[in-house]
Amino acid sequence: MGETMPSVRQRLFDHLDSLPAGYLSGWELFEDMAKLTGRKTYPATLLEYARDYAALSGAVFRCIDAEKSLYHYVPGVSLEGAIID
Asked: What 3-state DSSP class applies to 73?
């Protein structure tokens, strides 16, 4: 049996762990995750996962412009190596 690939959720958590504080959009997350996973996950799903990440890590992930899907992000505690799924 081969190793299983990390889920999109886990890959997003890893990605958010690596980002500095700043601003990002739902579409930016969509594009980044498509490159990282080779899958096109709905932006709404990625935003839900990002809110889960913020709740678990203590990060700030706050919508500042819903029309542009723009978010203010401040990292919390790294979840690197945590078993999420």
From this structure: strand
Cα–Cα distance for residue pair 65/47, rounded to 1 Å: 14
* Tens digits of residue pLDDT in 52-84: 999 999 999 999 999 999 999 999 877 665 556
Within 8 A by CB and 6+ apart from 84, the residues are 7, 9, 10, 13, 56
The Cβ of residue 78 has, within 10 Å, a number of other Cβ atoms equal to: 14
Which tokens go with 63?
């919508």
Entry pTM: 0.85
